[in-house]
Structure formats: structure tokens, C-alpha cells
Amino acid sequence: MSYVNKRKYQVVPIETFKIKKVCAGCGKKQTFVCRGSFRVNANGKHLDVWMIYGCEKCNHTYNLPIYERVDLSKIPKSDYMKFLSNDKEKIYQIGTNKRIFERNRVEIAREKIKYNLIPFAEYEKNLPEGNTQIVLVNRFELSLRLDKIVSEIFNVSRNESKRLLAQGVVVVQVERGKNGNPNDKRET
User: Fold this and answer.
1) What residues have CB less than 8 Å from 85, skipping those under 6 apart?
2) Cβ(37)–Cβ(86) below 8 Å
3) Where are the domains of the chain?
């Protein structure tokens, strides 16, 4: 099927991912948020780096391991300095990297991820005439509700967006490659 209209958006988290885990302070599973800082500990030539999270209810802390017992010479000096200065860009980079959470077997609070849709070009909010293809560059591999996205893009109700998707008037393609690499596409 050919599409009269094509729109492309990048899906970008607004903040670092929140996590779910059992809180030692509350005694039950809670949501933890990033405190915006690292903890760095050196023991001889070995270095430990953690990103600090806090329970939303009681503020009990959890240290998410970034590096454990790594030889200091294996960490780039620029990264080391960013850890020491609690660099906001480094916090965002690590706090939105699913691999770090998977490696540590930490559950991401997917339902709490807030994101922006950043268009690659200027588009009108109105639903255009004819079939429309929406391409979402989702390099952070977020779980997306396509009806919610269509509703947001065209400023229509969720029921209307579900109808548009079901009838094929609007089709959504999600690119999950690194930096939206078009060679790594998967439809959802």
C-alpha cells in the first residue's frame, strides 16, 4: 500500500528511567527514582561506580551498579571525571540505557516513562487526507501505545485513533535500531 503522507518522529525519554524493586525501608515493592548523582569508590587500582536511586515513598536509597571492581585504567578519564562531577548528560545516558538495567536484573517502571515525540520536520496537527504512515525512531526501545501516539499527533480521541489504526488509514512503523538506523527495522 502506498501512503500519501509520511511523518517521522523520534521518541525521546524526558527523564531517566524509574525502577521497581523491593524497598528495604518499606518492606514491599516500590518505585525508585534517580537522585541525579553517582557514588564512586576506589580501592587501590579498582573502582566501583553506582548511580543512586531513592524510594518515592520513604527515600531509602539503592545503588545501581555501573562498574564494579574495574581497573581504573579501563575507564576513560573523561567518563571518570563525569562520574565525579555528577554530569547530567552522563546520568541521562546511563539512566536511559536498558542494557544496564537488564545486566543488573532491575525492572524498569515502564508505565512511568515519560517521553516526547520530536518531529523530523514540521507537520500540521490536523489529520491529512489519504493514508498516513508514521515512522517512530525508538532507539531507547520504549514500550509504546500506538493509539496514544496517534491520538497525540493528530489531536483526536483515543477511540478515534484506534479506529484510524484498525482501518489502516494510519499505519505506524517503529524503527528500533541504534540512533534510528533504518537497516534495523521491526514493525509493531
Assistant:
1) none
2) yes
3) 5-14+113-186, 19-112
Question: Whole-prediction pTM value?
Answer: 0.80
CA atoms within 13 A on the CB side of 129: 0
d(CA 46, CA 38): 16
Residues contacting residue 15 through CB under 8 Å, at least 6 positions apart: 34, 92, 95, 114
- Nearest 10 degrees: CA dihedral of 153, 144, 65, 33? 60
Distance CA 25, CA 14 (A): 28
Do 94 and 100 form a contact (C-beta atoms < 8 A)? yes
pLDDT digits (tens, 9 = 90+) for 52-87: 999 999 999 999 999 999 998 899 999 999 999 999
Contact assessment for residue 64 and residue 98, using Cβ atoms and an 8 Å cutoff: no
- Which pLDDT tens digit goes with each residue over 159-180? 999 999 999 899 999 988 654 3
